Amino acid sequence: MKLAALFLACVALAGCSTALPMPPAGSGIAVAREQVMATERAFARTMADRNLQAFSGFVAEEAVFFSGPTPLRGKAAVTAFWARFYDTPQAPFSWDPDEVEVLDSGTLALSSGPVKDPAGTVFARFTSIWRLEAPGQWRIVFDRGNPVAPAARP
Which fold has domain 26-147? Predict the structure, then answer.
């Protein structure tokens, strides 16, 4: 008898519960994509502003950058290598994302875009992987640039 009463109570309570509406598919991804796009642009701005310390703040402790002859492992090694790009009054290059994709989990993202010399000529394309390390705090974990073929001349 007690078991039957317990069962009926559970059934009655289950009938009172309401399922929470699910957000539209992909809406969280759109927000994350915009966050990563803005973060990548802020990261690129560190070059224009000549601010190596700000650059370093975007780099994850365990980051791997393919910037030199061998992969640079760790924030300290990446920052030390990249210091050469920040020690002149004019930035030697700039970059801007034109593509961002985020995993459905919203915790890992890829950004990519052109790298330009001071005259605005595209000479490479970067690809970066970003990880969400704290709410709203994206940090770069992998980075690689690849040269692009020069445009055919008329």
Answer: Nuclear Transport Factor 2; Chain: A, (3.10.450)
